[in-house]
Design goal:
Number of strands: 10
CATH class: Alpha Beta
Largest sheet: 8 strands, parallel
Strand order of the largest sheet: 3-4-5-6-7-8-9-10
Strand content: 5-15%
Structural class: alpha/beta
CATH architecture: Alpha-Beta Barrel
Protein name: Aldo/keto reductase
Helix content: 25-40%
CATH topology: TIM Barrel
Family: Belongs to the aldo/keto reductase family.
Shape: globular
InterPro entries: AKR, Aldo/ket_reductase_CS, NAD(P)_OxRdtase_dom_sf, NADP_OxRdtase_dom
Keywords: Oxidoreductase
GO molecular function: oxidoreductase activity
Number of domains: 1
CATH superfamily: NADP-dependent oxidoreductase domain
Length: 318
């Protein structure tokens, strides 16, 4: 299985994983079990997705069925949500998430957003999402250095093998490198042909940070949320369709291969078993340099997952 070697630990992270965002809670356990059965060895989840216990049940069933051992799952990735950035809450949340998954450790633990919101006790509401009980957004003054040092303690305590970032830009990454004992091993970003973020990817290569792309199909994931911002479907774009036809592949496979061939990991999700298998097989062909250039040329800087759409004080990409 094609993989990326993480710089600090030497652990191999598969290039193609299974993302758990919007995986239906009532079918999540079965979907995760089937994903593992199909060959997925990277699972990407988050407390904000609200399906951690069900995903963990799918992992438990796969292990009990003899499909895999825990160590065969090269990367189970989880994210620290915005309301748990204070130093006293980071490890506590990691332990809760591990308990929900039924695991002893995560392979990778990420800071979901460089945003700190007012703490919400999990006993009161979990996942806490973006808002207080009154529907308003409440910020909290926790600096990144405090959160990152607490993340490093998560590694020291054996709760996670690797730590990283998500939705962070260059200036913040550079700042973290100034004080980090354990440097970020992975950066997870929105990445598709409408938002290529090439300078950020190049910075990560310079620092030896692996990059994982989410929302690889662009607007498709946001249509049902009414948040696709009027963008045309990449899955039906003429350039993508022509390449797919020439290769005898699906447009989704072309979009995924555009990323993996350039060294990025991808974490597509699907509640459909056929597409789940199809996505995993995206590395069975190569694109020409001209095809990669043509796809990259679709970049229009369209960011679909932007917290500023929730509150103007959350303009982390400004």
């Amino acid at each position: 299985m094609a993989s990326i070697v993480l710089k600090r630990t030497g652990q191999k992270m598969p290039l193609v994983g299974f993302g758990l965002w919007k995986v239906n809670k009532d079918t999540c356990a079965e979907t995760v079990f089937n994903a593992i059965k199909a060959g997925y060895r990277l699972l990407d989840g988050a407390g904000d997705y609200g399906n951690e216990k069900q995903a963990g049940e799918g992992v438990r069933r796969a292990i009990e069925a003899g499909l895999v051992k825990r160590e065969d799952l090269y990367a189970i990735n989880l994210s620290l949500w915005n309301t748990f950035h204070a130093k006293e809450h980071v490890a506590a949340l990691a332990r809760k998430q591990l308990a929900d998954w039924g695991l002893d450790y995560f392979d990778l633990y990420l800071i979901h957003f460089p945003i700190t919101l007012k703490y919400v006790d999990p006993g009161h509401r979990y996942p806490p999402e973006w808002f207080g009980d009154d529907g308003k957004v409440y910020l909290q003054n926790t600096p990144m250095i405090e959160t990152w040092q607490a993340m490093e303690k998560v590694v020291d305590d054996g709760l996670a093998k690797n730590i990283g970032l998500s939705n962070c830009q260059g200036s913040l990454i550079i700042d973290i490198f100034r004080y980090a004992r354990y440097e970020p091993q992975v950066l997870q970003i929105e990445h598709h042909p409408y938002l290529t973020q090439e300078p950020l990817i190049q910075l990560c290569k310079t620092f030896g940070i692996a990059v994982t792309a989410y929302s690889s199909f662009g607007p498709q994931s946001y249509v049902e949320l009414g948040a696709h911002k009027g963008a045309a479907s990449l899955l039906q774009h003429s350039i993508i369709a022509e390449i797919a036809s020439a290769k005898g592949k699906s447009t989704s496979q072309v979009l995924l291969r555009w990323a993996t061939q350039r060294g990025l990991a991808v974490i597509p999700k699907s509640n459909n078993h056929g597409r789940l298998i199809q996505n995993l097989e995206c590395n069975t062909f190569d694109l020409t340099p001209e095809e990669i250039k043509a796809i990259s040329g679709l970049d229009i800087g369209l960011r679909l997952n932007d917290p500023v759409d929730i509150d103007s004080r959350l303009a982390i990409f400004a």
